Amino acid sequence: MSEAFTLAGEARLQQEIKKSRFLAQAAPVDDAEAALAFIARVGARDATHNCWAWRIGTNYRFNDDGEPGGSAGRPILAAIEGQGLDRVVVVITRWFGGVKLGVGGLVRAYGGCAAECLRQAARVPIVDMAEVRVACDFGAIASLYARLPDFAATRTGERYGADGVELDLRLPRERVDALARYVQDLTRGRGAVGSR
Predict the structure, then answer these.
(1) Is the predicted pLDDT of residue 2 greater than 60, yes or no?
(2) What's the pLDDT at 194?
(3) Is the confidence at residue 196, as pLDDT, over 90?
């Protein structure tokens, strides 16, 4: 399976095409709500159009915002897919400059602006994350805390009981087995790693 990529952060690109100004803004997103929030945040109220598309796994949406059907949102989505990206939203804001581009010109303008913005943006691999619960005794907790960075694990919660500590962790799925082996070794078989 090939490695999937998303953006490392937000990206922007501005172009002028036949007197119209196009501003592409892209961002990494984890869900549809985050994509819609980004669209609402960066869309310019004074613009002629705020066209957008997002892809998250097998889910995607796009919007032409008043441009002729299929001339804006779909080419933006095609640019996301053409760059091999996932978990990405792109908004292209257009300020009309007085020269009509025609449907073909709009497809080239929106698709090209989105593709160039994404081409210039920094990328990071998408890491499949897992959430696990680790149970261990009090004597092992300091050593476990010290080793969490080795597993790229972050604490999301913890509970103390009479017999020890339960930690909720988030870490790359590919490192769960190594963490489980470490906990078993550290606790001499008394600790456990389970899914949450």
Answers:
(1) no
(2) 79
(3) no
pLDDT score for 82: 93
Q: Where are the domains of the chain?
A: 5-125, 129-195
**With 90 as the cut, is the pLDDT of residue 51 above it?**
yes
Alpha helices in the chain (DSSP H): 32-42, 73-82, 102-120, 138-147, 176-186
Taking domain 129-195, whether its CATH number is 1.10.150.120 is answered by no
Average pLDDT over residues 85-95: 96
Topology annotation, domain 5-125 = Ribosomal Protein S5; domain 2 (3.30.230)
Spacing of C-alpha 110 from chain mean position: 21
What secondary structure letter does DSSP report for 174?
A: G
Surface-to-core class of residue 39, CB atoms within 10 Å of its CB (0-12 exposed, 13-18 middle, 19+ buried): buried
Q: Taking 90 as the threshold, does the pLDDT of residue 12 lie above it?
A: yes
Contact of 147 with 176, CB cutoff 8 Å: no
And the tokens for 157?
Answer: 């919660």
Quick count: other Cβ atoms within 10 Å of Cβ 46? 6
Amino acid identity, position 148: L
* DSSP state at residue 128: -
pTM, two decimals, is 0.73
Question: How far is the C-alpha of 141 from the C-alpha of 72, rounded, in Å?
Answer: 54
Report d(CA 185, CA 187) in Å as an integer.
Answer: 6
Burial class (CB in 10 A: 0-12, 13-18, 19+), 139: exposed
